[in-house]
Amino acid sequence: MRFLLPFVIGLTPIVSALSINKPGANSTYAAGSTITVNWTTVDTDPTEISLYLWNFVSWPPSYVPLAQNVPTADQSYSVQIPCDTNPEWGYQISAINGTNVYIIHAQGDRFTVSDAVNGTNCADPIIPPPASTCGPTNAVSTVYVTTTPTP
Question: Which residues, if any, are the signal sequence (predicted)?
């Protein structure tokens, strides 16, 4: 037993990483409302994350981008829950790598989204797509092909 304690203490820094701590477990937010997402980081975390509204409790599963290219060092960012979000429990905020939803850096606790507040005009923000790393899209080229018949 004495030999296990230093081993377990030595592993503690390995399991620490980006951690979403707000919104909190079982909280409720109206569709269309703005919430603040808070997280903690360590020096090995990525410099930027994307925040997604995630629900894999209900069928069909869903994930919706809320913000992209958020500096991890900020440790806080305000996002709007989309107006057309189904009112139900099971939503989470996920911090992912860019637009690759298969690389999840952290997921927050599950919370409820309720109906949009009555009498309010709900408008979703427009999230611009990430900048392309490809060349110009208006490039034009002409290709000439010469064929020679073979006997």
Answer: 1-17
Answer whether 103's CB lies under 8 Å from 44's CB.
no
CA distance 27 to 42: 26
The H or E element spanning position 124 is none
> Which residues does the chain have with pLDDT short of 50?
5, 7-14
Dist. CA 53–CA 91, nearest whole Å: 7
CB 77 within 8 A of CB 51: yes
Distance (Å, rounded) from C-alpha 136 to C-alpha 27?
46
pTM, two decimals, is: 0.70
- Class of the domain covering 17-114: mainly beta
- Residue 88: alpha-carbon gap to chain centroid: 19
Residue 60: per-residue pLDDT: 87
pLDDT value of residue 120: 61
Which residues, in sequence order, are CB contacts of 24 under 8 Å at separation 6+?
A: 109, 111
| Distance between CA atoms of residues 120 and 48, nearest Å | 33
Q: By CB neighbour count within 10 A (0-12 exposed, 13-18 middle, 19+ buried), where does 78 fall?
A: exposed
**How many angstroms separate the CA atoms of 106 and 39, rounded?**
9
